[in-house]
Structure formats: structure tokens, C-alpha cells
Amino acid sequence: MSPSDVSRTAKPGTVFDRDAEWDALVEFARDDRPDAGLGVVSGRLRQGKTHLLNALTATLGGFRFGAQPAARDESLRRLGDELARYTGETPPGHRLRWEDAVDALLALGERGRPVPVVLDEFPDLVRQSPELPSALHGAYRRLRESGRANGTRLLLSGSSLPMMHRLFGAAAPLHGLAELELALRPLDFRQAARFWGIDDPRLALLVHAVVGGTPAYRAYVADDTPSGPGDFDAWVCRTVLNPRTPLFLEPHHLLLEDTDHGDRALCHSALSAIATGCRTPGTIAECLGTPLTDASHCLTLLRANGLLHGEPDAFRPNLVRLRIAEPLLAFEHAAVRPWRSALEQRDADEVWRRARPVFDSAVAGPHFAQICRDWVVDHAGEAVFGAHPATAAHGSLSDPGHHAGRELEADVVVRGRAGARSGPLLSVGLARWDEVMDLRHLGHVRRLLTRLAADGEDVTRARPACYSGVGFTAALRAAEAGGEVVLVGLDRLYRG
Known about the structure:
The chain has helices at 3-8, 19-29, 49-60, 72-87, 98-107, 122-128, 132-146, 161-167, 189-196, 201-211, 216-220, 232-238, 250-258, 261-275, 281-288, 292-304, 327-336, 340-343, 348-378, 382-385, 439-454, 474-481, 490-495; strands spanning 37-42, 63-66, 115-120, 152-158, 180-183, 308-312, 320-324, 389-398, 407-416, 425-432, 463-468, 486-488. By secondary structure, it is an alpha/beta fold. It has a 5-stranded parallel sheet with strand order 2-3-4-1-5, sandwiched between helices. It has a 5-stranded mixed sheet with strand order 8-9-10-11-12, with helices on both faces. A two-stranded antiparallel ribbon has the order 6-7. The chain has 3 domains: 3-183, P-loop containing nucleotide triphosphate hydrolases (Rossmann fold); 190-369, Arc Repressor Mutant, subunit A, CATH 1.10.10; 380-495, Trna Endonuclease, Chain: A, domain 1, CATH 3.40.1350.
């Protein structure tokens, strides 16, 4: 199908952004080849997969079945009833097997047109019926051997990322069948600002540091958006710190759904350690007072579920630093968790007054640095650093001029594309959320570049950079005008 055909299938106004994802789904669902197709849609909970797939089937006249935790026979009975309502036929009077159900789903594509068919939260069905992947594989094999034309475009959706990887991995029955693999990720920081209707960039970043880019969280606070920068503290108290909103217990629910009971307590403690500055498995295990093997198992579980990211140091690739991927979890474990019991006894305003300094230093500051790195990769033009950025990461070097353990650090180290392990160094920068930056900061970056050059790094193309949430001195602006430094403030992050 041509791109013009896709564009004629208008995305419903109820779907915010997701233009590329919508086009990919429409192209797959309307593909007029005579063979049944299989697609995979994955993504963490609350990212809008069900909403997007509902819009697709409603727009194109398809069928969607939403799985629930249930016994095998109940799920098959519900599926049979919903299929009967969709086709206008009589519900089956006998107990279905998955082989029968799969054949009935694929029969929907024998009506002369491509039709999208969605099994939402597919991992829930597989937990109930481990034979389901083999039943699907067998049905597709029989279809292809028969040579019958079939327009079914089956989409299997799931939020359990480890299970989705296993179901479509190299040794799985469904491996190689999928023609579409679509991952639905959180909205980026610019999309999130538009989604929440926030024009002020500082307020937008503060809100993003709390709720990130998860679309469902706006509904969790009944569309309550801060009215302006001066309303942020009150907004936190009436939403995320309010026991009457679903957002209040969401950090607990995220781990409840993605971990089993035996790991959950350790995962909470590990996230607290990371949120307060521990970044490697060894330092996390030491902080928790637990064996490294136990800590590593917990961290692997969090990474597999997309709640934790591991990122190589820009100057020491063998050193992997861990970062909490879901801002709400970072907010919870750094700023709120120490005060959870107090929230049940005291006014939220009083608790937030105590927690706010921790939020500014341990949450907003690191989050701002991450947003700067995201901006480099996703939004900075080629002219900013002299070439298209490929990566942006935190970097650190030991500082022999100071006492043991001191490091020279850079918040935003930009590299370009290269076939080798490390691309060319394009920029080294510092990020300061609540600090007006001046020539001292530029001097720090220059010392880092000198040290890197002494270690053999090619710094000839590297541009010093400063990223600030509150601005720059006139002297630093003059250095920018002279081409000595790249300056990036909030306006440039959100609009430049």
C-alpha cells in the first residue's frame, strides 16, 4: 500500500500524536497481499496500546479481544461470545479449543478484504494456555500450505516485555512469523508538554520529572494540570501526594504488576538506592547490605521490564551506569518514599515542604541532565555540533590532581556516527538545573577536554557546551557569540 493510501485513513482525534505508529499499523492492517499477516505491538503499561488498537479496529472495521486474568475456559468462552457478536452468528454451543478459536479468528480474513484482528494483552492468554503459540504457528502453516487467500492481519499486543521477548525469540514457535514489530514508548518531553497543555518550559520539565511521558497519568489525576509555574507545588500535593488519586499508589502498582512477590521488596530498595546516587550493581548491593548476586537478579528483572536502563560511561565504556527509566518511580523513591508514612498523618503541604529540596537535587537535577541528552539525540540539528549526533551520555574520568575518589564529570558527552565502538567526540558539556552558568563552568569543560587529549582522545572537533535551567551570565553569552561554547537553555530544549 502506498503512503498516500495510509494518509487517507485519518487518525481519530482521540489519539494524541503517535503519527508514525498509526501509519505503521494502518499500512500493516490494509496490506492487500493475499496472505494472512502477523504483527506484534509491545510497550510498558499505561502507554496507550489498547487505546491505539481500539482506534484502529474501530476505524477499519476490525475485531479486538482484550484478555483478562482468567481461567482458560472463561477466556475461550468470552472470545467465542465476542466473535459471535462481531460476525452476527450464533455463539458456539460447545467448549472451544484454542485451535478452533484461532481458526475462527483467521476466518475473518476470508471475507474479501484485509481486516485487523487484535488479541490485546496476549501474554495473559499464554499464561492461561501455554499451547496457544503452537496453535497459532500451526494455523499459519496450514494456511500457507493450502494456498488459500486470507486477509487477516492479526496483531498480538502485550505489556509484559520479558514474556513478549520470549514469545517471539529465536527458539519460540512464533519466531519469524511477525511482519510488523511495533514498540510503543512513552511520549518524549516535548510531546508530553503538548499533551499536558503546558507552554512554560520550566513548568513542563518539572511536571515531566514527576509523571514522565506516560499518557495514562493525565487521566489518573482527572486532567488536573498546573495552572502556571506558581501552581506546581500545590499540583503535586493535590495529585501525586493525594491518597484519593490513582497516581498515589501507581509506583507500588508498577512493581506489583512487573515483579513477583519474592523480588518486590528488594526491587523497591534497589530503586531507592539508585534514586539517591548509587549507579552500579556493586554500590547498590553495598547500600542494600545484600549479596551481589541477589542485587544483580533484582536489577536484571527491572531492566527486563523496561523500568531501569543501563548506559555505558561515555569515556569508560566498560562502566555501565544504571538509571530509573520511569520518572514516577524516581520521584517516588527519591523524594516521596521516605515520607510515605507521614502522608497518612500529616498534611501533604507539610510533607512536600520537607521533600521539595530532595526533589530539586536528586530528581529535577538528574532529570534535567537526561532531558538535555535526549534533546541532543532527538532534536539538535547537525549545525549545533558540526555533525549529526549519534549518542549522548554521562562521562567521568578520575582526577589525579585531587584526593582519591574524585572524578571529573561531564553530563552531556556527544559522539557522532562511526563504525568503531566509539564515534568521534563532538561535544562535552555540563548541565545545571538550578544554577546560572558562567565562565567557571566553561573552564571545567576545558579542563576535561585537556585531560581527554592527554589520554589520547581526539578532541579537535569537540565543542564545549553548557546546559542551564535558569540561564547564563553575560560573559558566557559573549563566549557563545565568539564561537567558544554552545549554550542550551529551557527555551532551546523545548522550542529550538
